[in-house]
Structures are given as structure tokens and as C-alpha cells.
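Look over this record before class:
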Amino acid sequence: MYNYGECEICNTPLEERNIQQDFWIKDKLVVIENVPSGVCPQCGEKVVNAEVGEHISGLLKDSKLIDKAPTISVPLIKYEVETEAL
């Protein structure tokens, strides 16, 4: 178990959890599951330690791994605002 310390935003002790982390790589959404992280139970801030960050960096550089990974489908909603005529 890693001691993540306190949240830099609200000073609440961080709790260790496995999370999903998403990244945009060359216009492609890549999601990494089961990332060990420190998560603030108060404000939701998330941090990883240096070793985990380096491992994630290696995963994201492996284009063959990304190409072979299963894919998921997500809804895409366009943000539109109606404006009133003046």
C-alpha cells in the first residue's frame, strides 16, 4: 500500500483505489483500467505515484498494444445552444 499523503486541493487524506484513467492519443480515446491511484474522498482529485505514471507512459507508447486492445462504444453528444434572435 502506497501513502499518497493529502489532497493538494482540500488537504483531505487520499485513499488508495483502482480507477479508470482516460487519455487522448492522436485523436483516439484510450482508457486504462485498474490504475492504482490516490483519490480524495472529499473533492475527487486523483493522483498516481511516479512508478505508476512511468508504466502508464510505456503503455501509451505501445501502439501495437493499443491496436490489439478491445474497444468500447461511448455516446457522443454535440453541445449546441439555441440563441434568440435580437
